[in-house]
TrEMBL record:
Keyword field: Oxidoreductase
Family, as annotated: Belongs to the short-chain dehydrogenases/reductases (SDR) family.
Superkingdom to which the source organism belongs: Eukaryota
InterPro entries from the UniProt entry: NAD(P)-bd_dom_sf (IPR036291), SDR_fam (IPR002347)
GO molecular function terms noted in the UniProt entry: oxidoreductase activity
Pfam family, one: adh_short
SUPFAM superfamilies assigned: NAD(P)-binding Rossmann-fold domains
Source species of the chain: Podospora appendiculata
Keyword Oxidoreductase in record: yes
Protein's UniProt name: Short-chain dehydrogenase
Length: 352
């Protein structure tokens, strides 16, 4: 859940300093030598340094890497670990160009692929997926990070007839992931779904997921449904792909400031907290973008997670803490039901 509007610290200075001296220690005072010490204050750069052997030479795909967001911060942190390729999927060249420039400023040898796609349009997603499949310079994908999202926007239906948050935050990723699975077939590959504690706001509206009666629309019910869908998607991916050695995790990155909050007003912010933590709940402390992308990176990189039970991470740790994830988001039956509903909505069956 991301509702703070504090200024985002500059990343360009950090990138320049790293380029001058790539062996420099990380800028925080936190020193993490064991996975169980990762937590709220851990940064993305620290995770990449700690799991450098899981970054170097590997291929990562990230959706929603627009400037100033955690998708961009995730990509920039990964660039410090010398990956072979970073595939960036987003709506326009203009929105992603600063992220590409930042990556090249760190290491010009990294192959950066920009795939333009509107995740709210299933036709656009299918076209983008085919381009990825047809691109011989992408032999495989080691980690797919489904990061893109829209938060608490006014009511809107896409051309496909889907509620906008559900389309951009879940259905687009559902179609993209299933279409490019042939390139995620290597054992050890991972699919990461960036959710949030916003899942506490609502489960899946099984009878009317698209709020076709617009008068019933609530921004946070729609956001909560999408964030719940992210978690259920990971659960069902694990069930279907375990025999292939492919895993999936979902996560809460924390509360941070980015363009994700562009639709928020003070009234909407208060409504969010009332719905998610209640009148007497304690609001979580805000994170920097570096801290916010860290949980994504642990989910994407740590090999020790393969031997652990669970699908949900918060503050870089596997957890079932009910203050960050709702029971309905961890329900295996609900995960199977969501898969079937998603297939019905997008008009395509995936026999994974």
């Amino acid at each position: 859940m991301s509702v703070w509007n504090s200024k985002i610290g500059t990343r360009s200075l950090e990138i320049t300093w790293k380029k001058i001296n790539p062996k420099i220690k990380n800028r925080t005072t936190h020193s993490h030598t064991m996975a169980n010490s990762f937590g709220f204050h851990t940064t993305g750069d620290e995770l990449v340094e700690h799991f450098s052997d899981r970054v170097a030479g590997r291929i990562f795909l990230i959706t929603g890497p627009s400037e100033g967001g955690i998708g961009a911060e995730t990509a920039i942190s990964l660039a410090c670990g010398n990956p072979s390729s970073l595939i960036l999927v987003g709506r326009s060249v203009e929105r992603i160009r600063p992220t590409i420039d930042a990556i090249r400023n760190i290491n010009a040898a990294i192959q950066v692929k920009l795939v333009v796609a509107d995740l709210a349009s299933m036709a656009s997603v299918r076209e983008a997926a085919q381009k990825i499949l047809d691109d011989a310079s992408i032999p495989h994908i080691d980690v797919q990070i489904n990061n893109a999202a829209i938060m608490a926007c006014p009511y809107s239906l896409t051309k496909d007839g889907f509620e906008l948050q559900l389309a951009a935050g879940h259905l687009g990723h559902f179609v993209l992931t299933n279409h490019i699975l042939p390139k995620l077939s290597k054992p050890g590959a991972r699919i990461i779904n960036v959710s949030s504690m916003g899942n506490l706001a609502s489960g899946i509206r099984w009878d009317d997921p698209n709020f076709t009666k617009g008068s019933e629309y609530n921004e946070w019910d729609a956001y909560g449904q999408t964030k719940t869908a992210n978690v259920l998607f990971s659960i069902e991916l694990n069930r279907r792909l375990a025999s292939k050695g492919i895993g999936s995790f979902a996560l809460h990155p924390g509360s941070f400031s980015s363009g994700l909050q562009k639709f928020l007003t003070e009234q909407l912010v208060q409504q969010a907290w009332d719905k998610i933590i209640g009148a007497d709940g304690v609001k979580p402390s805000p994170k920097s973008l570096q801290q916010a992308c860290a949980t994504t990176l642990r989910a994407a990189l740590d090999p020790a997670l393969e031997g652990e039970e669970g699908v949900w991470l918060a503050d870089c740790q596997l957890t079932t803490d009910p203050t960050t994830v709702a029971p309905w988001a961890l329900n295996a039956r609900g995960a199977r039901r969501l898969w079937a509903l998603s297939e019905d909505l997008v008009g395509e069956k995936f026999d994974v």
